[in-house]
Write a structure and sequence with these properties.
two-stranded antiparallel sheet; 36% helix; mainly alpha; 2 strands; 130 residues
């Protein structure tokens, strides 16, 4: 029985020494640095690139917008002839600058009647505008 008592006394002694050691560590803030190498295996599916570029070129396209108005002509034929004459002069001037005929186009063309309203309120065409 004495051997058992010695055994318990040793266990209690070791336990008290551990508590005393922990108390000393706590009071004096003693620590032992543990070096742990952690590696991350995260992979990102993002790819980001930032850059800046600059280029200088001579322009090779120009847009020219003109309008032709012919007013109060007697017939559609007269309006068409005047517009065609003026339009052909413009096209020839542009072609003389070295512009190819394939690069010149007309985008809109319209001829509309002009009306007058005499005293009897009957609408009457007085001419054409294009």
């Amino acid at each position: 029985m004495e051997k058992e008592n010695n055994y318990y006394i040793k266990i209690i002694g070791v336990f008290l020494i551990m508590i005393f050691a922990l108390l000393i560590i706590r009071i004096f803030n003693i620590y032992y640095p543990i070096k742990v190498d952690l590696t991350s295996s995260e992979r990102s599916s993002e790819f980001s690139v930032t850059g800046e570029g600059k280029i200088e070129v001579v322009p090779d396209i120009a847009y020219l917008s003109t309008g032709i108005t012919v007013e109060n002509e007697k017939s559609v034929k007269d309006v068409t002839q005047k517009i065609s004459t003026i339009n052909n002069a413009i096209i020839n001037s542009v072609k003389s600058l070295g512009i190819l005929k394939e690069d010149i186009k007309t985008s809109q063309y319209s001829i509309n009647p002009e009306y007058e309203y005499p005293e009897d309120n009957a609408r009457k065409i007085s001419g054409y505008t294009g």
